[in-house]
């Protein structure tokens, strides 16, 4: 009998719920993150916050700003800085596509989800997005509520 490999990865760590409300996400892209050991251990505990974070260009590289990964208590003095900028790992074509969206179209790069993939590697789902005004947010909420109500009525009719 072959032993099954322990499934270590595969889990949502943090989600930016307000991003879909505040931005109209045009395109999504998966990116890796350059992390240190204690950051990975803290993420495995499910502790992170990406709600106020965004990605920006720093000398030709994409970095994640304002993402909070709390310190890992057992590491004591060998800990990381919770709010440091983290380099995002992308292919050149993907990076060029994102930079084109930012410069030409005036879009923003917002993180949507932080998770571990099937191989146990920390990944960040990025969204290329346009900002919404308050009246746009209200219109989207009205449309979503109407769609829910319409589906409920159709289900009731059978």
Automatic annotation (TrEMBL):
Localization in the cell: Cytoplasm
One biological process term in Gene Ontology: trans-translation
GO cellular component, one term: cytosol
GO terms assigned for molecular function: RNA binding
Superkingdom of the organism of origin: Bacteria
Chain intervals for the UniProt region annotation (Disordered): 136-158
Major location (coarse): cytoplasm
SUPFAM superfamilies in alphabetical order: Small protein B (SmpB)
Compositional bias annotation for Basic and acidic residues: 136-150
One Pfam family it belongs to: SmpB
Sorted UniProt keywords: Cytoplasm, RNA-binding
Family: Belongs to the SmpB family.
Cited function: Required for rescue of stalled ribosomes mediated by trans-translation. Binds to transfer-messenger RNA (tmRNA), required for stable association of tmRNA with ribosomes. tmRNA and SmpB together mimic tRNA shape, replacing the anticodon stem-loop with SmpB. tmRNA is encoded by the ssrA gene; the 2 termini fold to resemble tRNA(Ala) and it encodes a 'tag peptide', a short internal open reading frame. During trans-translation Ala-aminoacylated tmRNA acts like a tRNA, entering the A-site of stalled ribosomes, displacing the stalled mRNA.
Stored NCBIfam families: PRK05422.1, smpB
Protein name: SsrA-binding protein
Encoding gene, per UniProt annotation: smpB
């Amino acid at each position: 009998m072959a032993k099954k490999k322990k499934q270590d990865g595969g889990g949502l760590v943090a989600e930016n719920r307000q991003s879909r409300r505040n931005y109209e996400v045009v395109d999504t892209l998966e990116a890796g993150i350059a992390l240190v050991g204690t950051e990975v251990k803290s993420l495995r505990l499910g502790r992170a916050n990406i709600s106020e974070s965004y990605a920006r260009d720093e000398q030709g590289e994409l970095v994640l700003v304002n993402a909070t990964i709390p310190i890992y208590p057992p590491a004591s003095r060998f800990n990381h800085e919770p709010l440091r900028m983290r380099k995002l790992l992308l292919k050149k074509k993907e990076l060029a596509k994102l930079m084109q969206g930012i410069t030409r179209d005036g879009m923003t790069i917002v993180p949507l989800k932080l998770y571990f993939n099937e191989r146990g590697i920390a990944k960040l789902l990025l969204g290329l997005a346009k900002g919404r005004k308050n009246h746009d947010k209200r219109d989207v909420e009205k449309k979503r509520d109407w769609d829910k109500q319409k589906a409920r009525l159709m289900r009731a009719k059978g």
